[in-house]
Design brief:
156 residues; alpha/beta; 6 helices; binds coenzyme A
């Protein structure tokens, strides 16, 4: 059984993240989606809410578990027995940051590869911070996030 870990802030989990999740499950038997608890990003949604929303949005998929983590992602993935980290790659702008992280994570845990999946064109320009901005100004976030997440956030 192959296990991969998909880390992120997921504030909130978008259709782009769902696209990566569904495609990663064609490559790996199991996928742990893990919410980063303490990063330098300040978040709108609590860790518990982010986990709950991701669980709802991925309930139709077999082999997904949703967790949170604190500390180094490479160590967290190693402790779970994962063979890879999964990251979405949207535009060339993601390249420097992502390749640096992949390099440093593999220096720390040599068995841990990072697999980049090219985000589908429909979601390539989506970002969680812009979704939050649209929400803040009362805009419609349904084109960008799974339906149950849009409903939950619009009811908040
Ligand atoms: N579709 C749509 N949007 C996507 C996307 C996709 N497929 N993939 C990424 N994004 C967006 C996110 O919405 C987010 O947008 P935002 O910045 O506007 O909020 C942005 O791209 C990047 O977010 P995310 O994928 O959540 O990554 P991150 O940069 O927030 O998280 C961690 C990075 C948490 C994985 C990384 O910091 C980490 O591993 N930290 C732990 C500490 C550690 O190990 N540090 C050493 C690393 S070498």
């Amino acid at each position: 059984m192959t296990l991969a870990v998909y880390p992120g802030t997921f504030d909130p989990f978008t259709l782009g993240h769902l696209d990566i999740t569904e495609r990663a499950l064609r490559l790996f038997d199991r996928l742990v989606i893990t919410v980063a608890v303490h990063t330098d990003k300040s978040t709108l949604l609590s860790t518990e809410v982010r986990i709950d929303l991701i669980q709802q949005a991925t309930a139709h998929l077999d082999g997904v578990r949703v967790t949170s983590f604190e500390g180094l992602i490479a160590e967290y993935a190693r402790n779970l027995g994962a063979c890879a980290l999964v990251r979405g790659f949207r535009t060339p702008r993601d390249f420097d940051y992502e390749s640096q992280m992949a390099h440093m994570n593999r220096r720390m845990v040599p068995d841990l590869d990072t697999v980049f999946l090219h985000t589908s064109a429909a979601h390539a320009l989506t970002s969680s911070s812009l979704v939050r901005d649209i929400m803040h100004w009362g805009g419609d976030i349904r084109p960008f996030v799974p339906a149950m997440i849009a409903e939950a956030l619009m009811n908040k």
